């Protein structure tokens, strides 16, 4: 009897192996077909489901009024296209994702743009209302989260300050590190912490945002002020408190560089409401940050803001819906909401929020419903931004591999969605997946951590993060970790600039840019000169 069972078991194993090999062969064939298809032709209207995977959700790109109660969904059917495009036979330490959706590999011998002064990570440019990038009196200016290099690299988040860099505009040959000069901190000490009613915070920090220049030399910085209330052992005395804040100052320049004044007054504008955007009472680990403001040409006279949030459910509530799944009727690879919640997917509730300014000073704002939700798909849609091209509205955001919900996988990098307005039934780019530009990753192996990369992972898994899409499709990010567990280096400076080609619902890595797709280090060019007299300013006397 035992022998017969052994034989039966062996036959079953052989049968299962044959099925798995056939499935792998089918996926490999489909992956090869994807790679062979011209990128521009890839849109969800013509996408054929990869064998073994569902079809993506159909999205219309239809625009709605910005104040309408409609939220587009990045569904599980959409996000599962990432794994469908991944090569299941990719060996250890090799990228398993299509090259056209992957950032080129960054070398380990990178220069430090701050000359060993500060860690540098999330960065953004000086912009106008249309998100174009002006120079100021002959200088290009970039804002970054910075922290003293005496701190450990992974301690930087809780001690982040907003700093700035400058370099001469329109210079043909620059030093390897991009030619940037660190200008120092933007806000006076203590300014960003003054808004909190409870001043007993253990530490207080400044997180990402955006910077607008107005007439003359007026700057308004929109950012995230955060207070932590922690015990000496690192546990929370009470939940952390993030606020979206605006501060106004002035920028000056002469032949020797750039400086700034003001920024003492801090306008506490938005706090997660618990109605559209999850708050601390619902989840002490909620996300609420990263304001990006812009003027929509379709709505003259109005200024809008997108930001990262979480959908306003109580933590642990079984909140996944059939619409979050997004499967077509009869799709054989459908998951039910209950099935994914049984795996814990309801703990991932990312969304992209929208607000509209109610005064000209841009200090008063009104929440609007989210423009995108990723409920039961991912928990973070960081640093969202609106990008206009060819009459289309692109929503770009960034996310991590480790923040995906159970049963979904995708790389660190940029995710994109396209529609006909700032509130649209956004279509995820690139075969309906949403993946626009991922770091080289192998979805067949564990993710690891930046401080301990998996040995089998592609060395570029954590090479870059916090990508910011600039005019002309240029993309800037910072270096986190390059390498695997046997040899890796930590970053803390800006990565080489790369470029993406944006054509309808297709976004691809431009390998003709720079050297095999990698441009110069921290190359953030201005597009025009700000309209102000070029007369050098007089430096203040200390």
Structure description:
With 542 residues, the protein is mainly beta. It is built from five helices and 28 strands. The strands form seven sheets. An eight-stranded mixed β-sheet has the order 6-5-4-2-7-8-9-10, with no helix packed on it. It has a five-stranded mixed β-sheet with strand order 1-14-13-12-11, with no helix packed on it. Strands 15, 16, 17, 18 and 19 form a five-stranded antiparallel β-sheet that branches.
Blueprint (SSEs and pairs):
Blueprint: H1 2-36, E1 72-73, H2 76-85, E2 118-127, E3 134-135, E4 139-148, E5 161-168, E6 181-185, E7 203-213, E8 218-230, E9 236-254, E10 257-270, E11 289-295, E12 303-310, H3 322-325, H4 337-342, E13 349-357, E14 365-375, E15 382-389, E16 392-399, E17 413-419, E18 427-428, H5 429-432, E19 435-438, E20 448-449, E21 452-453, E22 464-469, E23 474-479, E24 481-484, E25 487-490, E26 498-503, E27 506-509, E28 528-529
Parallel strand pairs: 1-14, 2-7, 3-28
Antiparallel strand pairs: 2-4, 4-5, 5-6, 7-8, 8-9, 9-10, 11-12, 12-13, 13-14, 15-16, 16-17, 17-18, 17-19, 20-21, 22-23, 23-26, 24-25, 26-27
InterPro entries: Glyco_hydro_68, Glyco_hydro_beta-prop_sf
Protein name: Levansucrase
Family: Belongs to the glycosyl hydrolase 68 family.
């Amino acid at each position: 009897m035992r022998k017969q069972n052994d034989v039966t078991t062996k036959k079953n194993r052989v049968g299962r192996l044959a099925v798995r090999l056939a499935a792998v062969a089918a996926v490999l064939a489909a992956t090869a077909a994807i790679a062979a298809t011209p990128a521009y032709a890839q849109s969800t209207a013509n996408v054929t489901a990869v064998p073994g995977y569902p079809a993506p959700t159909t999205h219309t790109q239809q625009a709605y009024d910005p104040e309408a109660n409609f939220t587009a969904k990045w569904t599980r059917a959409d996000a599962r296209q990432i794994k469908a495009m991944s090569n299941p036979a990719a060996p250890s330490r090799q990228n398993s994702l299509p090259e056209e959706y992957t950032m080129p590999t960054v070398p380990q011998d990178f220069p430090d743009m701050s000359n060993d002064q500060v860690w540098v990570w999330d960065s953004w440019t000086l912009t106008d209302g249309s998100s174009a990038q002006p120079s100021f009196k002959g200088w290009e200016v970039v804002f970054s989260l910075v922290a003293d290099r005496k701190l450990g690299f992974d301690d930087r988040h809780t001690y982040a300050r907003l700093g700035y860099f400058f370099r001469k505009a329109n210079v043909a040959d620059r030093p390897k590190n991009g030619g940037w000069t660190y200008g120092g901190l933007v806000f006076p000490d203590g300014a960003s912490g003054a808004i909190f009613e409870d001043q007993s915070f253990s530490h207080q920090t400044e997180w990402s945002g955006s910077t607008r220049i107005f007439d003359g030399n007026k700057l308004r910085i929109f950012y995230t002020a955060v207070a932590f209330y922690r015990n000496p052992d690192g546990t929370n005395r009470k939940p952390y408190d993030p606020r979206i804040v605006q501060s106004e100052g002035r920028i000056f320049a002469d032949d020797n560089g750039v400086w700034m004044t003001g920024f003492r007054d801090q306008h506490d504008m938005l706090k997660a409401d618990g109605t559209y955007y999850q708050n601390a009472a619902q989840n002490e680990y909620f996300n609420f940050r990263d304001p990006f403001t812009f003027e929509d040409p379709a709505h003259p006279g109005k200024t809008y803001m997108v930001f990262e949030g979480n959908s306003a459910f109580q933590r642990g509530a079984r909140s996944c819906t059939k619409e979050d799944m997004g499967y077509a009727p009869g799709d054989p690879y459908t998951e039910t909401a209950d099935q994914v919640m049984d795996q814990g997917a309801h703990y991932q509730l990312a969304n992209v929020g929208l607000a509209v300014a109610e005064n000209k000073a841009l200090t008063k704002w009104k929440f609007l419903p989210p423009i995108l939700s990723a409920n039961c798909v991912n928990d973070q849609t960081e640093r969202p931004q609106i990008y206009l091209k060819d009459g289309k509205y692109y929503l770009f955001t960034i996310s991590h591999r480790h923040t995906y919900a159970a049963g979904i996988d995708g790389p660190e990098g940029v995710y994109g969605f396209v529609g006909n307005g700032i509130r649209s039934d956004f279509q995820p780019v690139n075969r309906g997946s949403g993946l626009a530009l991922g770091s080289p990753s192998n979805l067949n192996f564990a993710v690891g951590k930046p401080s301990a990369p998996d040995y089998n992972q592609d060395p570029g898994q954590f090479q870059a993060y916090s990508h910011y899409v600039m005019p002309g499709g240029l993309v800037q990010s910072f270096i986190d970790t390059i390498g695997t567990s046997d040899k890796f280096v930590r970053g803390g400076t800006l990565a080489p600039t790369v470029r993406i080609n944006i054509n309808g619902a297709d976004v691809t890595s431009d390998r003709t840019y720079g050297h095999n797709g990698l441009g110069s280090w921290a190359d953030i060019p201005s597009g025009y000169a700000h309209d102000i007299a070029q007369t050098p300013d007089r430096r203040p006397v200390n």
